[in-house]
Design brief:
globular, alpha+beta, 8-stranded parallel β-sheet, Immunoglobulin-like, 6-stranded antiparallel β-sheet, 16 helices, Jelly Rolls
Length: about 750
């Protein structure tokens, strides 16, 4: 029997300086009644009209004054038995748990669930969960020179909590915490603690499956394991079986994501006492890589012995305060499919997703590159931190390892860069025992059947000894200036795992979260006398808050992002915009053309490169960002451009050193015959036409094209079945007229 404790909670909050831990007096604390779980303190402060909506104007900054508040969640539950088990599926973060006044356990990690045995229960029982202020707990640790984090993120280094909840460039500081998953009372835990399916010797002809079953208590057990995929069935009383002609799981575009429905039936003395059911995909995954870009170098993945070109997006928390939100997650995953992505990268600055997320990725054939939750920092190497991380990695790996969609574990996001270049006490990334020893040792024991990358980007010992050689896999941010400038144009990594270009939200979205969307700056603006760029300008407080700056402080990180966006627009267009509507269109066009260029550049060299994972799909709060969907699910212009340039078969152009060339990239296993036309949209004139035969799973150069030095070209093409498609390309796309561009585009789209 299971009881979910959802309603009728009380929440008491008290400032740390007013708390007497030896004499808790709830009557003196601020109280919120009728609280429903899951919740977090930010949500309760808003629901109870203490503060305005956290995402409106600069309101989020006002929530920070509650960072030193303790939270006491209180609920009563009935029990018909003296012994039960309490399950807390997600508490953020450090808490003491009391039942009937007795301390039954503690929590110290947001990312794992906790279970506590309850004894001597009565008919009516009181549960209290006391959550400590994470910010104050984080400040108890000494910060040494070998540690590094962004300003305002140092409290996060020793606390196993979503790193970006302390403030990031894409998410606000929401560090208050709460109970963000369900709380349950059960009679007992299942006898089957875990079933680990290990697939080996995988081919089209056969696969060996081993079922490693862990029990919570000793017994005289017998198991029967059944599996079904379509019409294929298997049955075994053993923990091993050989599957002939297995139905293999594949990523989108490379075959069906076949899943076996598996039932493990547990018998004791001939009686069925328990059944565990789940889905499992049989597949083989390999990563082939060299440390750097070099002769015969690579960074590429193979699924079932076949090279796959990964094309997808980074995945950040879809909701800043809630962390996990299945409704928003499904909108984002539907967009991932609509854009013809086959990959998401669960980013290490966020959180582990809901069970539903991994199930959906399994079902949809989406390759997951999965970071562990460490990002942009140099973390402690202390015994205490290693203990906490070891518990977390063990828990997460065991929980997720049966999901075929998870095809890569990565130790962290950009921590090698932080250790090597950003920390005060710089050192070799190879000294990071968290990602070089602790995590791989766990994976070797618990999940040795998928590749592991210690960091992204990964600076191994060879790369560190050859720093002049570009990394084979890289995050291409750089100066974030003109998207066809030297930095982006000269990038040679085989795999781009982060790249993006930001823009304003859609206009109606801006008006929902900002009181005054125009102008962007206040005070004096300093212009560059030698260009159209602005040198210095202070964003308004509202824009500073939503770009995203953690504190109301012009010296905070990420304050530069509005100025950067404005300069990107001023680089691309000759127009001077005097209203938010025109600037919003210009900003989104700038982002759209940049994303188009980044993706097509990687696809142009389809066989050389391993893929691109751009930044990112959906905002977790309203902001100026790189996302293609803003927080309110409105599509930016880049969404439509990316959908075209990620088409299965694409005609495209590139300005190479030898001139303007026409390319065709195909993700089809078959050849097709195409005819095409190239139209100068500014002159409304046909400048070229022809035909060609595509090459399966390849990019081919069709021909060199002569066109005006600065013009908009429309590429129309159709296959032998008559399916018509359209793409475009702007030559020398800098200092162009937005309105001339838009008028020309309207004729063909």
């Amino acid at each position: 029997m299971k009881t979910t404790l959802t309603n009728n909670w009380k929440l008491y909050i008290v400032k740390d300086s007013d708390l007497n831990p030896d004499n808790l007096d709830f009557a003196k604390y601020q109280c919120f009644n009728n609280v429903s779980i899951p919740t977090l303190l930010e949500l309760e402060l808003y629901r109870n009209h203490i503060l305005g909506h956290p995402y409106e104007s600069t309101n989020i900054w006002k929530y920070h004054k509650y960072e030193d508040y303790h939270q006491f969640y209180v609920v009563h539950f009935n029990s018909n038995r003296k012994q039960k088990v309490l399950i807390i599926n997600g508490v953020d973060t450090i808490a003491d748990v009391f039942v009937n006044g007795e301390l039954v356990g503690k929590t110290e990690n947001m990312f794992i669930s906790y279970s506590f045995n309850l004894r001597n229960l009565k008919k009516d029982n009181e549960l209290i969960i006391h959550i400590y202020p994470s910010v104050l707990e984080g400040r108890k640790y000494k910060i040494t020179d070998d540690l590094f984090a962004f300003k305002y993120n140092y409290e996060s280094l020793n606390i196993r909590k979503c790193p970006s909840s302390f403030g990031w460039d894409i998410l606000p500081r929401t560090a208050l915490g709460g109970i963000y998953k369900t709380v349950e009372i059960v009679d007992s835990l299942p006898i089957i603690e875990d079933v680990h399916v290990i697939a080996a010797n995988i081919s089209k002809e056969s696969a060996n499956l081993k079922f490693d079953i862990t029990y919570r208590k000793i017994g005289n057990y017998e198991t029967i394991i059944e599996g079904k995929c379509g019409k294929q069935l298997f049955f075994t009383r053993s923990n091993k079986i050989k599957i002939h002609n297995p139905k293999l799981w594949n990523i989108r575009g490379y075959g069906k994501p076949n899943l076996y429905k598996i039932k493990v039936k547990l018998y004791e003395n001939g009686k069925l006492i328990e059944t565990k059911s789940f889905r499992y995909g049989i597949r083989k995954v390999e990563l082939k890589r060299t440390s750097t870009v070099q002769e015969n170098g690579c960074f590429e993945f193979y699924i079932n012995d076949r090279k796959v070109f990964l094309m997808g997006c980074n995945w950040v928390p879809v909701e800043a305060i809630k962390h996990i939100d299945d409704e928003r997650m499904l909108v984002a995953l539907n967009a991932v499919e609509d854009l013809n992505c086959n990959t998401v990268r669960v980013w290490g600055g966020g959180t582990y997703e809901s069970d539903r997320f991994y199930e959906e990725c399994d079902k949809r054939g989406i390759f997951i590159w999965h970071d562990f939750m460490m990002g942009c920092a140099s973390y402690p190497q202390t015994p205490d931190f290693k203990r906490k991380l070891k518990t977390e990695i063990n828990y997460i790996v065991k929980k997720l390892r049966n999901h075929p969609s998870i095809c890569l574990w990565a130790g962290d996001n950009e921590d090698d860069l932080a250790i090597k270049y950003w920390a005060v006490n710089k050192r070799s990334p190879s000294t990071n025992i968290l990602t070089r020893e602790l995590i791989p040792n766990i994976l070797k024991k618990e999940d040795n059947y998928r590749p592991y990358l210690p960091s992204s980007p990964y600076i191994d010992e060879y790369a560190e000894a050859h720093l002049k050689e570009p990394l084979s896999e890289d995050h291409l941010w750089g100066p974030r200036d003109y998207f066809k400038g030297e930095f982006y144009g000269n990038a040679v990594a085989y795999f781009t795992s982060e790249i993006g270009y930001h823009s304003l939200s859609c206009l109606d979205s801006l008006q929902r979260y900002l009181h005054k969307p125009w102008p962007f700056f206040e005070g004096e603006i300093e212009k560059d006398p030698n260009s159209r760029l602005l040198k210095k300008a202070k964003p308004t407080k509202e824009y500073m808050c939503h770009e995203t700056v953690a504190m109301e402080d012009y010296e905070s990180p990420f304050e530069y992002r509005i100025l950067l966006m404005v300069n990107q627009v001023r680089t691309l267009f000759i127009n001077d915009f005097d209203n938010i509507n025109d600037f919003s269109i210009a900003s989104q066009t700038s982002q759209a053309e940049a994303m188009k260029y980044f993706i097509e550049k990687m696809r142009k060299d389809y066989k050389r490169n391993g893929g691109i994972i751009w930044w990112n799909i959906l905002d977790g709060w309203p902001q100026v960002s790189e996302a293609l969907l803003d927080y309110y699910f409105n599509r930016k212009k880049a969404y439509d451009y990316v959908k075209i340039c990620q088409s299965k078969n694409l005609l495209m152009m590139n300005e190479d050193p030898d001139g303007l060339n026409l390319y065709f990239v195909s993700e089809d296993d078959k050849k097709h015959r195409y005819t095409y036309e190239i139209i100068d949209a500014y002159q409304d004139k046909l400048i070229d036409s022809g035909s060609f035969v595509s090459s399966p799973r390849d990019s081919i150069k069709i021909k060199k094209v002569n066109a005006a030095e600065k013009t908009l070209l429309i590429l129309k093409y159709k296959d032998e079945r008559g399916k018509e498609c359209t793409n475009h390309f702007h030559t020398h796309i800098i200092d162009i007229d937005l309105f001339k561009y838009l008028d020309a585009m309207k004729k063909y789209y």
